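Re: the 210-residue chain
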Amino acid sequence: MPLIDISITVSPHTPEWPGDTPFSCGWPWDMSKGSSVNVSAITMSPHVGTHADAPLHVTPNAPGANHLPLSAFYGPVTVVDVSACTTPVTSDALEQLFPTASVAPTRILLKTNRTIAHGTFPDAWPTITANCAKSLTQHGLILLGTDAPSVDDKESKTLDVHHALFSHNAHILENLDLRDISPGEYELYAFPTKFADLDAAPVRAVLIQR
């Protein structure tokens, strides 16, 4: 089965969260200047492009990215289109959007169509409520992803959805590229890079049609 890349390409043109550290790249070793090889050096926030948040992102002294369980980022996933939603999505509203399934999804990707893959940072995007996040975890959710920059809204200072997920041992993917992905059932492979004690880690995320 073909792999479907749902990762954002990271470059100097990739929008970062306003005020965060953008991507930049230098070349300490450059073959055009006499070096034997090309070696680059990058500077960026781990939240630029497709990434997994770690609990440390919202809670002091919580586990960093190197402690994220690989099992959460691999397995069956349901893509749900919430792009038409204009208010935070409740549990009942989200259930109406699920493809027919006999059991509650353990992994959900929210397609909001407010993605930085378009080359600009969106002003706002659909989210779920914190109560919806809690309810999903009580029904077995272990991963929530979104093509938006955050699972919380842009103006949130309390990051209630982050806390609801992390406090119930669920995990988070952000800045996916779901522009060409239809709602439905897939297999997800999205392993975070093993950076010690960081608040997030870059991810190369792919889907396989089920």
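The chain has a mean pLDDT of 96.
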